Records
---
Amino acid sequence: MAGKILVRGLTTTKAPFIEEAKKNGELFIRQPYELYSKENQKVWTKLYNNIMPLWEKHANEKFLEGIQHLSLSPRQIPKLEDINRFLEPLTGFQAKPVSGYVPPYLFFECLKNRQFPTTITIRDGKKLEYLPEPDIFHDIAGHVPMHTDPVFADILVKCGSLAGSVAKRHAHISSREEQIAKVKSNLKALARFFWFTIEFGLMKEGSRLCVYGSGILSSAGEIQYATESRDAQRYPFRLEWVVNQSFQIDSFQPLFFVIDSFEHLYEEVKRLETFLNEGKLDNVAYDEPHIGDKEIEDFLYDL
């Protein structure tokens, strides 16, 4: 990055280093560890200490093992170089620091290549439960421990590969309007699958209901709601439902799908691939998530 950013602090939406990177058009960046403030470090410690008892009670076993594999600590924000030193020998994955929003085509391309786009800022200490966008606690403490498990890592790679194949599947269609409609439908289905599994998935471990979704695991409130609230709806995983189910990102999730194991989830990813190849995802239910025209063009840019 040209020049040096001397202002300390990497707080979400308030980080000069990030604003400078965006201004320069830099998406993939470094983690300027020296810029974390004492307040940033305190926020990590608060979040970690608050959520650890809930992880021990509700997180799946592979997640808890991942915490140990990565040597995560409440004492300080982890250095991504240390995370990758522990992670890569296990599954080939690496955390890849980014300055902000990653377009879907790039996000899935990263997954296919065993790279996980990772936010380096951390949320404001005055709003520990509120997340205007992902932060390093969500990405590293919520997502990355699961990346230490080989089966789960292969699921992520498979999801990335499926998304990457969407444009090629429709390359033969002469009508641009029809092409865009089918790509948009495919991406909605894949986004819904990712949301209700990787982000907000629940699992049965014997008689125990546990959490593996990172959107839940990075929030104490979400963990308690997903596992304990009588208002939450929980159903056995049904792929046909998942790909047609809309979702919103600004409130507790009202609906969860429960898998039996990561082997079960991998089989569902293979079924998702079959659905895609058979055209069953070309006309899924209309609704959220919103897929913008720019995102569609990104997927179709090489056709």
---
Amino acid sequence: MNEETKKAMPFSWAFFCIAFLLVSMICSLLWLDIPIHINLLVSIGITLIVSWLNNGHDWKSLAETIDYGGKIAMQPTIIMMLIGCLIASWIACGTVPMIIYWGLKIINPSLFLVTACIICAIVAISTGSSWSTAGTVGIALMGIGAGLGINPAMTAGAIISGAYFGDKMSPMSDTTNLAPAVSEADLFDHIRSMVYTAGPGLVISLIIYTVLGFKYSADSVNSEVIAQTLSAIETNFNIGGFNLVLLLLPAVIVIGMAVKKCPSIPTLMISTLIAVILAIVLQGHTLSEMTAILDSGFTIESGYAEFDKLMNRGGLQSMLWTASLGMLGMLYGAIMEKTGLLEAFLEKMKMFTKSLGGLVTTVIVTNVILLAATASQTLAIVVGGRMYITEFKKKDLLPQTLSRTLEDSGTIISPLVPWSLCGIYMAETLGVKAIEFIPFSFFCWICPLLAIIYAFTGKFFWKTGEKASMRTYRPLTDEEKEALKSA
């Protein structure tokens, strides 16, 4: 049917579709144990039927919507596959084992969680990617934590907290560029604004990780586990002498190309290629073996089961489960967006935006719903931002207050949604179920709470003319210009 025959989607049906997804996902995770892919497929079927019955969409238009979802999912899918190859190559060449080896020798168990969070924050700032950080040094830190006897869920939480802080504060991050673009804000105004939520959020998280680390000490570490891990690395990988420097190359390349603002796909490809060459030269793998490792993942039988479990991972095939889930999530989100279901549901949210506190809380709640309903932080930022930008303009707020709020919710909360693309990726990559690491991902909880507190108290939400800004939603008056000059 053509556009004229389509009707506005009733709120009741939009609510039904979103409620069906959320309730079925939660029930499956907690009780029913239904595969998450099947849940999403059924939810996609429900939305297609509702769209067909209620607002005049024929199959041709719905098929075009599915094609649209496939297009926006393609690049993230390729990136996930490449990260699978990257993980396998970094293990095969010895980069990950080398980091684990020296981490076990150097890091104090009581400071491990704090150290892991800080390391991931630094790497993510350098690369602009929480995914690459978790898939490289994150895996190594999981190995160090296992050797030190640290709760894996705590380790994963510290890795995620550091990775998302660094991602958000990096001018090379895609979402850090997307949020101000959607909000009509300046990139560096946005990053400076993020300091007010991300900065205290990280400090509070580090304090909590320090307290949690008190229960771990050198005396509580199982020295036999560490000895077995070190022995397994020494026996199966050549990491001594000048090899130590060479094995840093894959990581240096990722950081260097990120600093040069190179795109993600060629960066991952080049780092993987260098790791493959190092695996052949330093570890004695053949080219045939390395192509199999890139496809199916690295495997080893060292005689120490726990070490083998940590090392046997990566490969393009290992990411297909996650990639297919991401594809389904993007399809669901595209259908919700293009058929008007999201618009019908979110329009009802605007009634709560009269006060500043209500507006910010509504943006955050909306983005949580968008994350749960679409599995995509990109859609959450874009849809949430464009939906509420008028309300921020009406309140005469600076653009970076909206862009910061979008990041504090649409981005930072994303790994806390177990069926979102970020939640699934972190769980699969770090080997810890999302429901287990969620309580320990303190940074991802604290930032949105700080944003809400600031909004209700009026702190750090600036109106036009109250703070120097590269962009504003309206021109400054002469009096405002003079006030800023004298400030």
---
Amino acid sequence: MKLSSKQFTTALLSLMAAFVFSTVNATDAPTFYADALPVFQKNCVACHQQDGPSVGGIFAPMPLDNFEQAKIWAPMIKNALITNYMPPWGAHERHRGQFKGERYMDQNEKDLLIAWVDAGAPEGEEAEATSSGGLVANGAGTTLPESGWWIGDPDLVVGFDQEVYVPDEVMDWQPTIQMPVAEGAHENPKWIAKAELAPGGPWVHHIVSSHMGVGVPGRGPFTYPEGWGVLLPEDPFITVNMHYHKNPGEGTAVNDLTKAGFKFYEDGDVIDHVVETNLLPHRGWTIPAGDPSFEVNNTYAIDEDIFLLSMGPHMHYRGKAMRYELEYPDGEREVLLWVPDYDFNWQFLYEYETPKFIPSGSTMHMSWWFDNSEGNRFNPDPTQDVVYGPETTDEMANARIYYAPTTPRGIVVGEPIPVDVLETAREEDMVRRERSNLFDPASNDFSWLTEDSP
């Protein structure tokens, strides 16, 4: 077919326009060093770096400040952004600016990274990285200190007497184990300023400690605000409830040697607020088999003026969403925390930038939602009714809070400790001694693996 002069001219102009458009697109496409790297530095490399930190026993699988690695993982990066799987942070956007260490990523940053992936993840010029503004990652630091502890050199380190053997057959196991204090290492009560749990490996899903808070994926060291603290009495009974989770089978056994470190306040420091905690567990319910959105509700009365330091919702694999709501004495209600897409694999402690005042006479309303249907890909068994219990295949509805009375105590570290504070710390330790069902690592008794469940 022969084109007329006008048709040829039109076709030529169209081809030129298409070429110019594609050239402009290629020229304008984001590059790793000029565009993607600053976003990764701001939002991701606190975890995603070479030899990055262990957060609750979980390690980021690749460094994102390395072009070759980022390019290989580019399709997965796009998928994680589109599905909001990354960056991990459960609190709704409405809470932006309220909590420490928040991990919100702006939509324009997500769009930029997706555009970079769609363009083929171009590298660009390494020299362009110097013009990115020198952004640094969120978090306390991006390089583990030489001490091996994010809190710095601990004043006290404790751990298991000997390694804990997790046999081949174990998939899910939650023993409570004591971490004894070496003789002479802690002879007098001390005020805890920071505490850090160091999991032995990625098979440690989470840890619940008697004095160190909770260690779970995504949660770093527990650092109290200045003037806030917990008293560690002399001869403390330090325990950890370990949650081991791995694939069972021949050759999968591991030995764990989890440790913990403490930093204490120094003489002359002032403790105004003695931190208290309450798990606020709710039991007595049954989640029907197949129910896609089972709701559980509970309340907690506030009988004195307090400062609320933080909140830590906890459910298992059927956990779907969780809400803390406060009803003030005058009837006004405020949502303190809304987690619309709870993920058992990423549990956070939401700590206020500034502790929140809650007046006496207020009521905390807590609501949990569970998905026990086939549509929940993490559901262990959608054909089973589910009740409250410690196993991962059970469920929990907990709403842990950390708080303190508002009246300043003015306790000077190094001077005599108020009798009520010392007695309370000792009594709590005594209760733990009496009630703890400890696993002895030296016993090598794993008969429970073959016992029939009751």
